[in-house]
Amino acid sequence: MSDVAPLTLPAGSVPPGRTPLKRLLSQTTLLIGLGLLAVFIAMAVLAPLLAPHDPYLQNLTARNVPPFWYEKGNWAHPLGTDPLGRDYLSRLLYGARISLLIGISVVILSGLIGATMGLLAGYFGGRIDLAVTFMVTTRLAMPVILVALAVVAIIGSSLWVVILVLGLLKWDRFAVVMRSATQQVRSLDYIAAAQASGASTLRIILKEVLPNVAPQLIVVATLEAASAILLEAALSFLGLGVQPPLPSWGLMISEAKAYMFFSFWLIALPGSALALLIFAINLAGDGLRDAISPAKSI
After folding, report:
1. Is residue 24 part of a domain?
2. Of 91, 41, 169, which is closest to residue 161 (Cα–Cα)?
3. From first to last of its 298 residues, what are the pLDDT tens digits of the chain?
4. 50, 100, 113, 216: which one has the fewest Cβ atoms less than 10 Å from its Cβ?
5. Looking at residue 96, which CATH number applies to its domain?
6. What's the domain count of the chain?
7. Measured between alpha carbons, how far is 190 from 182 in angstroms, rounded to an integer?
8. Residue 19 covered by a domain
């Protein structure tokens, strides 16, 4: 028997061959989620090329034409038309633009607010932490959907109003996660080394703390994007979100509810698209969370 001791890795190190890229590629849920997201992004970007008709063009002589798989369907309108004779496939493609725009815009706005508050609270502690914790607690006491309904009903509804309202209401999770992650990072040796070298507080937060808590920020962003898209659809369904004639999926469901027993596909198609987009974003978020968790890196 050989007397050579087996090679052991230092605690927390990454085994050979387990690079971050390989860890990401090993996550099946992440790959499926990103694949589905790529399809929706392609739909949104290429909508002018893929749409067979103008999504706003009405043709009252071709109302409620069923999809091509129905007996009365035709390939001129592959997914049929709505009660105003507008091509449903075109409206679904352009609806992807609105959903992704809302998801990305709300995440950027709420992420800037929540991440800033969380970084400050986690790094400085003390009164700043108490103030941020109080604001988070106050925000959590207010139901998002009810507050959004009240605000939109008072000031009026439009695409940008919905983005602004949701962005100002969805920052709490960013603040909570960033505060906790920053508290864990600020006591590490490299932060003390940066402080001892005379680096400014702003530089330490931006160059040392933020890059090391960014993975958690990305995971929260994916989950909040899905939540924002779903909330916009709910507001549009209630008539207080995106206004006609914009092809929001929630608005399309709302406009078709009177026909649900006669033309079920008018609700099924935008509802399925919305559900699949939320599913894709959640899959991607779960895959990212698993890929960056400490247990996956050893």
Report:
1. no
2. 169
3. 444 444 444 444 444 445 666 766 677 888 888 999 999 999 999 999 999 999 999 988 888 889 988 888 888 899 999 989 999 999 999 999 999 999 999 999 999 999 999 999 999 988 999 999 999 999 988 888 888 888 888 888 888 889 999 999 999 999 999 999 999 888 888 888 888 888 888 888 888 898 888 888 888 998 899 999 999 998 888 888 888 888 889 999 988 888 888 888 899 999 999 999 999 998 988 888 777 765 444 4
4. 50
5. 1.10.3720.10
6. 1
7. 13
8. no
